[in-house]
Amino acid sequence: MVNSMNKEATTMWKLSGAVVAAVLLTAGCSWTKEKVQVSGDEATVNQKDTSEPQIITPIINTDGEEIGEAKLTADNGGVSIEVKASGLTPGEHGIHIHEHGVCTAPDFKASAGGHFNPTGKEHGFDNPKGYHLGDLRNLEVDEKGEVYAQMATDQVTLEKGQENSLLDNDGTALVIHEGADDYKTDPAGDSGKPIACAEITMNQLK
């Protein structure tokens, strides 16, 4: 059952042509279809047609244990992202796309590198010198330590060889941090150390 959400949490963000939308649900849900409002038009974030490039990749914690799964799907030139995970601390957590597709526990910062930032900007949606193309909106983890979230961005692609592709030579990674992203502090929104990681590479491409 979809958790109720306050008005602020359901605000859709449009930033310099990038539409980033998030719907926070419970981790016990299966991959289900949810409709979200994007700039006045109804958009669907759901399980995409398998003809579209898609990546399904495990999320691991700093002990190397699998705690969930991320699914990335090509979506009208951009990428829709779904995250299911458990065993996290309740509350807000920063989540970003990092520059290397390597998740080696326990030090994901060392293996996955910094944020995916091919445009050379500073971090943060609220930073006048920002933002990184790997910046995403915070996850909201429930009191059980579980999260199911959907989001989308038109600033990156899964098309190999294209500009801003997440599937460059060494891939990229989806990284969850221990604290909330403040959307302004460079280089990672004061969100603390990485606590979970999922590799985005050609090996996971369906």
TrEMBL record:
Belongs to the Cu-Zn superoxide dismutase family. InterPro entries: SOD-like_Cu/Zn_dom_sf, SOD_Cu/Zn_/chaperone, SOD_Cu_Zn_dom. PROSITE patterns: PROKAR_LIPOPROTEIN. Its EC number is 1.15.1.1. One of its GO terms (molecular function) is copper ion binding. SUPFAM superfamilies: Cu,Zn superoxide dismutase-like. Residues 68-200 form the Superoxide dismutase copper/zinc binding domain. Keywords: Oxidoreductase. This is Superoxide dismutase. It comes from Sporosarcina newyorkensis 2681. It holds the Pfam family Sod_Cu.
